[in-house]
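ok so dumb question maybe but i'm new to this and my supervisor (M.) told me to 'just get the structure for Transcriptional regulator' and walked off. so i did the thing. is this what she meant?? sequence i used:
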Amino acid sequence: MATQKVERQLNLVIALLSTHGYLTAEKIHRSVTGYAECATDEAFARMFERDKGELRDLGIPLQTGKVAGSDTVEGYRINRDAYALPDIDLTAQEAAAVAIATALWQTPEWATVTEGALLKLRAAGVDVDADPIPFSAPMGLPGLRGAEDVLAVLLAAVSAGQAVRFRHRSSPAVPYSQRTIEPWGVVTVGGRWYLVGHDRDREDVRTFRVSRIRSDIETVGAPGAVGPPPGTDVRAIAAAAVSAAEPSAESVPVRVWVADGRANSLRRIGTEVADRVRAGRPGQILEIDTGPRESLLRDIAGHGADAVVLAPSDLREKVLTRLRAAAGTGDRR
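this is what came out, is it supposed to look like this??
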């Protein structure tokens, strides 16, 4: 079966990043998966020129230079210093997307693709680094509370079609219980991460908050043995489970005092119902027709003293708990 263009170009990037020197076009033709399928040198030359052009259009810094031991033969490589990205500031949503992509890259399927490409290069006599392209999962992602390792295991298990066994608790006030799950997917709802799958112990579909799963999670059974039924909407299942867990949340109006001229993000989603002076500061009372969801909690807490929850009391307490934790003066549970 012909190698897909994206896979061929990925193999080329791996080869040009891994080599210590310059690779000749002839060696690329013989050793990089996807090019050996070209029936003639002319077909390879056309394909290689197209790939080089597309990689350069993507900003990948291809270099040409003399091959070691030759004054006339030219080769190719990627300038690692120019290829490396500078520090990037990501939003919470962007960081979550990167985390998923990184974890998927580390799954057995993608790891096999990378290792296979490097093995073929070594077999062809290309001098490559032992560990040329490091990948690591970012830490401290929002909604995980230190459960990044658990997320990585879950994503790998979903990709491999393998069951998982872990200890989980539905709230900090209850003890952990062991569960064996056939994982169908991991999604975010309201800023939190959730696992959806078939619970073998309960013989039913269940949703679990990832941050409440213990880190001693393990895979069980053979890869490829489990998977979601056709047409399963994992995100809809998770959203319904989260909504059912707080049945009154969506019906409780939120009342927030905001300082005059402040908290514009809350003003955009709320309705001004009264003026009020609080602690000597003029402001307004907003009514927001939504329940105490995680995203709203974060938004209110982010305004500090410029936004104060008046009702409901449970949301007020959650905001105060978050502010105390951020200040290092309260319980961080």
